[in-house]
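Hi D.,

Good news: the full-assembly prediction came through. Inputs first.
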Amino acid sequence: MKMLSAWERITIARSQNRLKALDLIPHLFDHFVELHGDRLYGDDRALVGGIASFEGQAVTVLAQSKGRNLEENLSCNFGMLHPEGYRKAMRLAKQAEKFKRPIITIIDTAGAYPGKGAEERGQAEAIAHCLRLFSQIKVPVIALVLSEGGSGGALALSVANKIYMFENAVYSILSPEGFASILWKDETRAKEAAELMECTAFDLQAKGFIDRIIAEAEQGLEADPLFSIVQIKDAIRQDLNALHKMKLNVMLEQRYQKFRKLGAQL
Amino acid sequence: MNQPFHKRKERLNLFQTLFGKKKNIKVTTSEMNIEMCPKCSTAIESQTLKQQNYVCLQCNHHFPMGAYDRIDAHFDADSFIEIYAKANSNHLNSFPDYLNKLTKYQKSSDLNEAVVVGTARVANQKVAVAIMDSRFMMGSMGQIVGEKITRIIELADRRKYPLIIFTASGGARMQEGIMSLVQMAKTSAALERFHQNNGLYISILTHPTTGGVSASFALLGDIIVAEPKALIGFAGRRVIEKTLQEQLPDDFQSAEFLKSKGFVDKIVNRNALRTFLIQVLKLHNLEVKL
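Then the structure:
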């Protein structure tokens, strides 16, 4: 894996030609059937959900989806979810539990959308309930951080038994621009902020948040996606096997402890 | 010899502050401490303000209130037993200037961190409580705050106590990065277990409750009440205005706004909160006759 600065990784993670969830889904799964809507208000295109087959096993897929071009981005709000996205995820997670399908989430968002409608319809409430629901959903959950894990909006879909992260993905409490603007009242110092933030896959693995790092091809993820896809498939296969072998309460306890032990000393 | 002049000068200053254009809200003289209501400009003597639980009786403005003042106001006298009082974040000082900030807040307040937790009684009913205090680093949630809250949820679960949390927070604490963020998941997961074991959780949203705290334990109460006019929301107003390029209405993200949108059960005046809590707790304990 390459030695790069945090800012270089952020630049890669945010680049327009970076692989998006819609590119990744057909590589990882067969027979994907997309399911729409939260049954309450609308259908958030920033959260693509549905059922599919992973090597012959039915799974539920919940993917934060950034657009591959302007048109797609306008329809999916540049991958920034509204409360409807989180509520769709919860609906499909409960459905997965009913039919005993493991859940695979793909994380790729700059954050939950900071908009008027989003606030009016309970962005905070939706994220809070997502966090709570996923902590005890009775099927294995695996999260894959593709590019950007932006704050609570990303965390809502990261309450998983195992979290994988692409080599050049980043995950942080707020954007480096936001960080710099709060810390130094100067957004242009984002590059400097990025190095302080400990937001790379390697930083987060050291902290116990990330379980596996998915290496990207030397020439870049887009040039050879299969190099990474093979690793992801191997990891999902191994982890699902192990999680399936656990008794339900052991599997739930493993997920609970994964988060419980983060910052547990007083 | 200087005394009369000194006193006269003090009174003159006081007069100017209270009736002039000066923005000072707190005035201290050798004779008395006076605070001015930022909403209606009524001058209130500090001791009186404290007796009124930091509520302006003219316009019902709720001043910020410290964690220990809230304990005195809402729980049975001397019933509060604090736990983890000494826990602080001073050993987590990897971030530039973080230790300085922490010690500054520790010196200027009676707090070691942004939340106070323990057990108390309300009309003799034992409860587990957490009270956030916005005076300490904007009430931001780092790993110690998250851990204290998680432990009090777990204590409530073990002892079958109702849980009461007062929230006041700007959100997750950026100095601790991802370790702050994951406290949202940790506290919410503990609440889910408490919920599945039929624990009663009353969440009291005070000014301000935003960001990662609003998007985790604050909005997970079985019963969610808010203090009048408290700011409650996920994203900051300025961020939203910048994104949308439009001005938001004044009452946007106020407690009343959230209630009208269906996210808050009730707005409860601070001075009516104790009665409200007693009523709700009794209704959850059917052996007690109302």
